[in-house]
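Please, why this fold?
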Amino acid sequence: MAPHDGVNRLLGERADGVVDAHVHLWDTAAVRVSWFRDGLGLPARVGPDDLARAVATSPVPVRAAVAVQAADTEGEARWLARQAASHAPLPGPVVLQYDARPDDPHAWAGMAQALIDDGVPVAGLRLAVPGGAADLSDVAGLDALCEGLAASGRVLETLVRPDQLPAVAALAGRHPVLDLVVCHLGLGTGDPDAAWRDALAAVAARPRAHAKLSGLHTTAPDDAGRTAAAARAAVDLLGPGRLLFGSDWPMSARVAPYAQIVERTAAALPPLDDAAATAVWSGTATRLYGVRGHRRRST
């Protein structure tokens, strides 16, 4: 598959390269990863060196990556932060999972509070609740989390299913100065139907809501049409300035090698001018996550 024109322009004109806004690292021998088990088709360890080898195959240079915590323990969070500190920019900024601590009124960041209090650089927290209530009513401390993130200049990520997107939109409405990023377009490998589009439109109506073009691809023979429909809807609703490329590596490696994920994402996008392509492939991630000179506060 030939790279999309937007990737060609970026390759030819942007010396600072792509920022991959969604990668994972783990080491099951060093720290427990609760969901990991044999038979998932994933390696027991994926470290910075593995990431560097993967991104080296990209048709465009990858200059930085945002590492999203794979599970939700403090030990794993500290392991990930150490990897980022010693191997930046691959990975670079770190997004930790939100695991509530309802018995501690000072822990607005839940599990991650201890790291933030210790001065560990944390670019944002991810609310991963695709199995929870549609209205997010079962998430303890949600508004306090948003207030803490906004006050400290950090990002809220959400990993949700399509019928939870209206609740994400409502959350963004209650916290209008919070930068919010929906992982995998709030769709993942699902069907970009009218219900999903309407729900994403509700999110897009909030000016500081963003979404990642990540976690979309499958091995289905007709997958190109589905991902193109999803990408077109995202561009139409959010605009390229509020979209970010994310590979979802190494989860995506079960579908296709890293280079193909980049190419397939590029092929799914509608034609983009230089400014729009730069926003999707690096600019928005640079602005939100503090890549190369845009430091986040670590209060």
